[in-house]
């Protein structure tokens, strides 16, 4: 299913809160009720629900209901609910979409609640700015993470292949992948996942070349040669047997459960650091994290410390004050921090980082150590993607599939990607 979040299913213009005087007793009753919507796996849902239960225990009379979906289903659902004026009170929001939702009036500005009701005094300033659009705060970062390569260390050991390091290049990684596939220690397992449709991978690769996905003013920042070379690199990996073939990669629905590592189809795949806890929970083999590979040994890394996701408050909410209080509790309460651990990323609050760090289990320490140890691999956070970036991500993935199945050549795929994204951005 192709979904365009900024078009058909999204209501243009802003949403206005109704006054309590107009709503009467119905609105007063709803003031103690909150509805949450987020994407993620069952472990994330379990942690989120425990925090909600904790909040309810401290706020008697408050009722909280939550719903979660996989990434691919989440955005159509949210857009439909916003369009139908049935948006949840608290919305999990992504860096990729926050600009368009904010500018269409779907999110409530939060800066007026600071610092009395929303205390972000020990947050990194850059992370607060990451949730801001046009001078207003629309998203509170729930944690910091970075893109990562997840490795099945057991499968590597069985194949007699050394794990990649921070210095490993893409060319070397291709050879590593081919060696694992050729070893054939596990039936149907290939070396690495096909990352050609992964936007974080492509962006990282571009940043190493001194480029970007988008300019600060919302234009495409790469050209046909960049895109064609990207698709060609992965075509060569497929030809060499280094990565999974297209039919196996198509099983990946962009969630943890269907990632080729979790399916046992590859020894290496691509994720975000905050997902490691859930990945390890789903895999009996010992996993590890490392960075995305370098283009050349001397290349600067293309990573950055990113808000893993935000909590935003719907402009349609009849309980904005309560929603803000819940968000503040989520990011600043020590008991909540321990329940959440690092599943959504490293806490942005320095005080909560200390609370969590003292209690982290082995898997949590892996995620923390990875983000903390990126060194020269990490650069500046890029500006928020423009409206249409979500469609651009889908286009990258769709064209990658076509190239993978031999329906397009890498060069034609590169031309089509640039043309399509340029057209998407021009529509605004």
Automatic annotation (TrEMBL):
GO annotation, cellular component aspect: periplasmic space
Intracellular or extracellular location(s): Periplasm
Keywords: ATP-binding, Nucleotide-binding, Periplasm, Signal
Single Gene Ontology MF annotation: ATP binding
InterPro entries registered for this protein in UniProt: Bact_solute-bd_prot1, SBP, TAT_signal
Entry superkingdom: Bacteria
Signal peptide segment: 1-29
Keyword Signal: yes
Classification via PANTHER family: ABC TRANSPORTER SUBSTRATE-BINDING PROTEIN YESO-RELATED, ARABINOSE-BINDING PROTEIN-RELATED
Family: Belongs to the bacterial solute-binding protein 1 family.
Protein name from the UniProt record: ATP-binding component of ABC transporter
Native species: Rhizobium johnstonii (strain DSM 114642 / LMG 32736 / 3841) (Rhizobium leguminosarum bv. viciae)
